[in-house]
Fold this protein.
Amino acid sequence: MSMHAMVATGPARPLQWQELPLSQPGAGEVRLRVEACGVCHSDALLLGGRYPGLTYPRIPGHEVIGVIEALGAGVAGWEVGARVGVGWNSGCCGYCSRCRHGERFACENIHAPTGILRDGGYATHMLARASALARVPAELDPVEAAPLLCAGLTTFNALRHCGAGPGELVAIHGVGGLGHLGIQFAARMGLRTVAINRGTDKEPLARQLGAEDYIDSSATDPAAALRALGGAKAILATVTDAQAMQAVAGGLGPNGTLLVIGGVGALTVDSLDLLAKRAAVRGWYSGTAVDSEDTLRFSLEHAVASRNEIYPLEEAQAAFERMMSGRARFRVVLRVGAARAGG
C-alpha cells in the first residue's frame, strides 16, 4: 500500500508530490489518515532551511487533524477510528526530570518538532507518537479545527497564563493569523480586549471578533495609547517585526507582561521601564497535547473559529506561498480528504 505527500527535498526548493510506501507504526506510535493540515509560518523553518539539525527529505505540517487507522505496540488509551490532532510538539518521554516536573514541552529526550525534524501532515497519512495526540471533539470540522492546533493553541495557552483576570486590560498586537484568534480567546475569557494594528482596515473585524478598543499604530504611539487606557496587564505580541514589538512594550502597566509568540530574533526593551513597573518580557511555547485538547474544547464551547483559505493537498506549494505573502485572510489550510487518493 502507498500514501501521497508533498515533500520538501531541500531548502528553498518547491515541494514535490510523491507516492511513498505506507509505513506501519512503531512502538508507541499510531498511524493517522490525515483529514486536514494547517499551513503555518513556522513551516518556513523547514522549507527555508532555518532550523538546526534539519535532514531531507521531510514532510512539513504541524496543524494536523486525522483519524487513527493503526496502533503500534504498547499504545494504550487510544483506538482505531478516533479523531485526533497533532501539533508542533511531537510528544514526550514521560520519565525525564522535566516531564516529571510537569514541563513536558521541554522534554529532555524528545525534541523533534512535527513537520520540522519529524514528518508532518502535508500527506494523506502520518505516523505520530501516542504522547502527541489530542482528542478532537466530534462536533469540530477537521478543516476548521486544524489551525487551532498551533495558532489557536499558542494564543489560548499564552493568554490563560498571562496573569490577567476578568476585566483587566489585555492588548492583542497584530490582527492576522494569530491575532484574530487571540482577540476571540481574550474576549471570551472576559478580558478587556484591545486590538493593535497598522491602519484602520481591520478595525471593524477586530471589534466584531470581540475587541472593545482599537489602536491604529500607524497614526498614534501605541504604547502611549495603552497607557492612556490604564496600561496593559498583558500584551500578546503576535507580529513578526521587532521594531513593532518594541513600540508597544512601553504600554505595559504595573506587573504587566509582554508575551512574545511571534519570532523576531533580537528584541530591545527599555530596562528602566521594566524595572519601574516590575514588568516582564516572556516568550511562550505553544503547548503540549493536553493544551491542544483544552484549546479545542474551549473553542467549541465559546464559538472561537479560525477564518481560513482552503487548498487541496496537491496545491500545498501555492498554499505555502499564499501564507508567506501575508495576503491570506487569515489562516491557510490543506483539505487532505479532497486530494488525489493514495493506493
About this structure: Residues 338-343 have pLDDT under 50 and may be disordered. DSSP finds eleven helices and 15 strands in the chain. Residues 152-283 form a domain with the Rossmann fold fold (CATH 3.40.50.720).
